[in-house]
């Protein structure tokens, strides 16, 4: 008997005697592990126990998970698969899976998770691993040259226009919908996200929004509070709530120290990052540019005329230019990977905007030194917001305008249409995708470094996280920032239009020049707008307008 | 013995001189080649008509055209032997290489020029469209491309500095020093490393602003903020240093080979004539080494013109395009923005610039070496 299986049964309430008595042989127990659990305990309790059990692998604060942990979690979460697939049902099927390998996450975890699935079903998976910056070009080339050489792809919702819009993906069968419990997804990830022309294509494995990570020790430091007051800083020393405050605090912190270490304020990511770096300007701009009465903030939805050169975006660009001299000396050469995993986790900088996996990493990544001194909130707001329709800055009666940037809308697993002609292969591909998007497995991914963040309503059950070893105050702050971002009425939603990363990449190049002082903020913004106009014409304006409106739910 | 009486240029037993080939065999050979050629052209024509949606008959992929090309190549080879006898057999030694070069170099280059004349964005709904010289005019007005070309001029000029260092090291390793063999191997190590590994080990680790040993040393030496990649001049120099560290051994090993091939007698004659060390170097060694030096410099320049990997890994062309090379810019335009048509135009224009520049450089170098000698 496998030790993990034995542990599973014992934790589920069985004594050693029960286990031995209830199993005629080790093989029989192994084959019936899912059903065995049900026989020994009530189903709901079993599910809770399973969730508690996987969250102990390896346990928060007990080092970074390894491949053995991924495999163990994958094996324990196989129950849902077993309910829909017979053992050995996919013998002889080979699938190719394309995904990322950033930070040794994503595909690296998927391999481990699917190990037990492969053993049980008899299918074999071949892997295509890509670095983040290589992802978009690899995908685009495969589509344009009709050389799709993968059956399953890990993909972000922004690419749905390029892939689902061209009929390249397989429609999700009903049994998958039930297996992954789609109703559990947070509201903003429900259709139209993951759908195209009303058909469901995506198994969501992630939810994305940029939140605000800050150092609690810096904003509770008495000496800094005194210096802030003595220097005439506005209000009490504390965590900034608006971008105007972020700017002031960043300038104030230049040259200051906490516990003998240099402390810096906000960390910008000016270096291009294959298009993904543009999100970080977007997070600085959303509070200025996303008006509560207007769903659009990136383009004018009727004409696709870019808004990137309106006063709101130009202010955000100017903010970066103004803040950079107060940030670490080499910040101009920092990409988002560096700001999060090298700088913030390493103790440099006191404010960072990033996806939610920054939060799980500060606590569970071996290189993190800020696990006990990090707090979270939704993105800072702005005292005023630009109204594109009137061309005026407005102060809202409700106070500062907040607009969380739901950047990238999370990763999903998609099955390609090329498997549709082979029913066995199709079922195998969807079964693998459903296993990765399973409810329990997803909780583990949200709690440990995986590249994914919470995205289901069931992920926001704080006692589960506390039982796993998370500090209650820490995890409450983290989960609240995530939930508040997802559910915010003025959330800035990603346009799921073809070529969106070309827009971002073109902007990144021009922004890099602007941040380096080669052009003024307005000039840079105008250059981006011109490049975007050209791109829209090249891709096809009418279609882009139609898809942009659809992605905003207009 | 009978075979000793044969003339040296006698035909092998299984071959026939062309004038002895029967007209029927020649006709068969010509017919075979004609049928194969017609077949190949027909397959190409059918496929083009199908892909341009003029006709409905054709193949889903271009693979059958490749098969037709291979068959045509085989028929061509047989036809050569049938029509030309031994001359045809001799041609068989060359024909596969020629056909391979056409398929793998000449055709892709010509096709590349065609792609350069199209508007082809991979996300475009309408696919590839011919747009004449629009990409070319866009390139002329593109400040990012001009900036990258300017950076290339600076990077190429840095080769002269690399040459001086490489020459110095070669002289050192050519001298009777201790552990000479050990140092030769050690100095070659950077050349054996992948530029991407060099980028991470040195650019992103040793030269890292906060914890990099090079930054720590620079602080000790009085540089308050040793950020190697944050301002345009230091970033450019840092990239040049990284690239030089990798490729100086290449120049050094060529120059060392030249020094070791140099006649000892000439050097001894100079010494007998009373030349000091500097005079020996400047008036004897350096002129004699010019042909090797020119070869080393030209090869290094050709390598330098392709510089991209270190830049992509360390700076992504920044800050503000200060370190961008033409190749790294094309990489972004082509890969990040899927702008295949324009990216290809940039690459083709750069290819022509390189060909013209290197041709001029070779002529200039020849004249220079001739004048000096």
From TrEMBL, chain A:
<protein>
    <submittedName>
        <fullName>Sugar ABC transporter substrate-binding protein</fullName>
    </submittedName>
</protein>
<dbReference type="InterPro" id="IPR006311">
    <property type="entry name" value="TAT_signal"/>
</dbReference>
<dbReference type="InterPro" id="IPR050490">
    <property type="entry name" value="Bact_solute-bd_prot1"/>
</dbReference>
From TrEMBL, chain B:
<comment type="similarity">
    <text>Belongs to the binding-protein-dependent transport system permease family.</text>
</comment>
<feature type="transmembrane region" description="Helical">
    <location>
        <begin position="62"/>
        <end position="82"/>
    </location>
</feature>
<dbReference type="GO" id="GO:0055085">
    <property type="term" value="P:transmembrane transport"/>
</dbReference>
<keyword id="KW-1003">Cell membrane</keyword>
<feature type="transmembrane region" description="Helical">
    <location>
        <begin position="185"/>
        <end position="203"/>
    </location>
</feature>
<dbReference type="GO" id="GO:0005886">
    <property type="term" value="C:plasma membrane"/>
</dbReference>
<keyword id="KW-1133">Transmembrane helix</keyword>
<dbReference type="InterPro" id="IPR035906">
    <property type="entry name" value="MetI-like_sf"/>
</dbReference>
<feature type="transmembrane region" description="Helical">
    <location>
        <begin position="340"/>
        <end position="362"/>
    </location>
</feature>
<feature type="transmembrane region" description="Helical">
    <location>
        <begin position="152"/>
        <end position="173"/>
    </location>
</feature>
<keyword id="KW-0812">Transmembrane</keyword>
<feature type="transmembrane region" description="Helical">
    <location>
        <begin position="237"/>
        <end position="259"/>
    </location>
</feature>
<feature type="domain" description="ABC transmembrane type-1">
    <location>
        <begin position="148"/>
        <end position="363"/>
    </location>
</feature>
<keyword id="KW-0813">Transport</keyword>
<feature type="transmembrane region" description="Helical">
    <location>
        <begin position="280"/>
        <end position="303"/>
    </location>
</feature>
<keyword id="KW-0472">Membrane</keyword>
<feature type="transmembrane region" description="Helical">
    <location>
        <begin position="31"/>
        <end position="50"/>
    </location>
</feature>
<feature type="transmembrane region" description="Helical">
    <location>
        <begin position="94"/>
        <end position="117"/>
    </location>
</feature>
<dbReference type="InterPro" id="IPR000515">
    <property type="entry name" value="MetI-like"/>
</dbReference>
<dbReference type="InterPro" id="IPR051393">
    <property type="entry name" value="ABC_transporter_permease"/>
</dbReference>
<protein>
    <submittedName>
        <fullName>Binding-protein-dependent transport systems inner membrane component</fullName>
    </submittedName>
</protein>
<dbReference type="Pfam" id="PF00528">
    <property type="entry name" value="BPD_transp_1"/>
</dbReference>
């Amino acid at each position: 008997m496998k030790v993990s299986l034995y542990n599973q049964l014992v934790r589920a309430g069985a004594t050693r005697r029960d286990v031995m008595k209830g199993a005629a042989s080790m093989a029989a127990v192994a084959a019936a592990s899912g059903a065995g659990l049900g026989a020994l305990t009530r189903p709901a309790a079993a599910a809770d126990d399973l969730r508690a059990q996987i969250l102990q692998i390896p346990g928060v604060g007990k080092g970074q998970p390894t491949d053995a942990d991924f495999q163990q979690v994958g094996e324990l979460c196989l129950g849902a698969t077993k309910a829909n697939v017979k053992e050995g049902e996919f013998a002889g099927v080979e699938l190719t899976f394309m995904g990322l390998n950033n930070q040794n996450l994503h595909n690296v975890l998927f391999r481990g998770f699917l190990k037990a699935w492969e053993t049980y079903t008899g299918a074999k998976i071949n892997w295509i691993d890509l670095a983040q910056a290589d992802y978009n070009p690899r995908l685009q080339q495969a589509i344009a040259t009709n050389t799709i050489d993968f059956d399953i792809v890990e993909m972000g919702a922004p690419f749905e226009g390029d892939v689902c819009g061209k009929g390249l993906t397989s429609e999700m069968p009903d049994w998958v919908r039930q297996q992954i419990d789609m109703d559990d997804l947070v509201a903003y990830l429900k259709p139209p996200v993951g759908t195209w022309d009303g058909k469901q294509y995506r198994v969501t494995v992630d939810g994305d929004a940029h939140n605000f990570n800050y150092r609690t020790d810096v904003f509770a430091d008495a000496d800094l509070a005194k210096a802030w007051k003595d220097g005439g800083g506005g209000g009490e020393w504390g965590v900034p709530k608006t971008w105007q405050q972020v700017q002031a605090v960043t300038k104030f912190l230049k040259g200051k120290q906490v516990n003998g270490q240099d402390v810096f304020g906000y960390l910008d990511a000016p270096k291009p990052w294959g298009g993904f770096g543009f999100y970080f300007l977007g997070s600085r701009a959303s509070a200025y540019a996303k008006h509560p009465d207007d769903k659009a903030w990136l383009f004018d939805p009727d004409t696709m005329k870019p808004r990137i050169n309106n006063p709101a975006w130009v202010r955000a660009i100017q903010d970066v230019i103004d803040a950079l001299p107060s940030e670490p000396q080499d910040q101009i050469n920092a990409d988002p990977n560096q700001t999060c995993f090298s700088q913030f986790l390493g103790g440099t900088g006191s404010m960072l905007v990033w996806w939610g996996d920054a939060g799980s990493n500060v606590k569970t990544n071996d290189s993190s030194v800020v696990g006990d001194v990090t707090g979270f909130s939704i993105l800072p707001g702005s005292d005023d917001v630009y109204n594109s329709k009137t061309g005026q800055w407005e102060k809202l009666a409700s106070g500062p305008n907040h607009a969380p940037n739901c950047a990238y809308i999370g990763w999903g697993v998609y099955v390609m249409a090329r498997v549709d002609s082979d029913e066995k292969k199709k079922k195998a591909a969807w079964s693998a995708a459903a296993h990765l998007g399973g409810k329990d497995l997803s909780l583990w991914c949200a709690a440990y470094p995986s590249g994914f963040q919470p995205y289901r309503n069931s992920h926001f059950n704080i006692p589960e996280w506390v039982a796993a070893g998370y500090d209650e105050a820490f995890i409450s702050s983290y989960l609240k920032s995530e939930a508040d971002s997802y559910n915010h009425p003025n959330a800035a939603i990603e346009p799921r239009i073809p070529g969106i990363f070309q827009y971002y990449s073109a902007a990144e190049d021009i922004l890099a020049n602007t941040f380096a002082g080669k052009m003024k903020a307005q000039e840079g913004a105008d250059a981006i707008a011109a490049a975007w106009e050209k791109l829209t014409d090249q891709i096809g304006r009418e279609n882009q307008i139609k898809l942009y409106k659809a992605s905003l739910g207009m | 013995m009978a075979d000793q009486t044969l003339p040296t240029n006698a035909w092998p037993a299984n071959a026939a001189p062309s004038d002895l080939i029967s007209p029927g065999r020649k006709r068969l050979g010509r017919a075979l080649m004609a049928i194969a050629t017609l077949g190949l052209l027909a397959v190409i024509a059918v496929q083009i008509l199908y892909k341009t949606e003029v006709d409905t008959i054709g193949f889903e992929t271009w693979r059958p055209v490749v098969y037709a090309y291979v068959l045509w190549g085989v028929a061509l080879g047989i036809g050569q032997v049938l029509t030309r006898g031994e001359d045809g057999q001799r041609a068989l030694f060359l024909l596969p290489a020629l056909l391979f070069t056409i398929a793998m170099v000449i055709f892709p280059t010509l096709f590349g020029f065609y792609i350069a004349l199209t508007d082809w964005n991979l996300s475009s709904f309408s696919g590839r469209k011919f747009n004449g010289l629009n990409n070319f005019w866009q390139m002329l007005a593109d400040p990012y491309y001009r900036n990258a070309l300017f950076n290339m001029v600076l990077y190429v000029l840095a080769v002269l500095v690399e040459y001086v260092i490489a020459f110095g090291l070669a002289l050192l390793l050519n001298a009777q020093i201790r552990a000479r063999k050990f140092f030769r191997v050690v100095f070659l190590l950077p050349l054996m490393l992948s530029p991407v590994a060099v980028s991470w080990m040195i650019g992103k680790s040793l030269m890292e602003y906060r914890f990099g040993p090079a930054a720590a040393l620079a602080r000790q030496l009085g540089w308050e903020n040793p950020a190697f990649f944050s301002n345009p001049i230091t970033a450019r120099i840092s990239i040049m240093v990284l690239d030089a560290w990798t490729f100086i051994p290449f120049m050094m090993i060529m120059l060392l080979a030249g020094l070791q091939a140099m006649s000892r007698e000439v050097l001894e004659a100079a010494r007998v004539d009373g030349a000091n060390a500097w005079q020996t170097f400047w008036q004897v060694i350096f002129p004699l080494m010019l042909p090797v030096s020119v070869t080393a410099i030209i090869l290094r320049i050709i390598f330098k013109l392709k510089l991209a990997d270190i830049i992509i890994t360390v700076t992504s062309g920044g800050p503000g395009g200060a370190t961008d090379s033409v190749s790294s810019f094309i990489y972004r335009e082509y890969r990040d923005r899927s702008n295949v048509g324009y990216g290809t135009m940039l690459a083709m224009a750069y290819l022509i610039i390189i060909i013209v520049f290197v041709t001029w450089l070779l002529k200039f170098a020849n004249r220079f070496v001739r004048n000096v000698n």
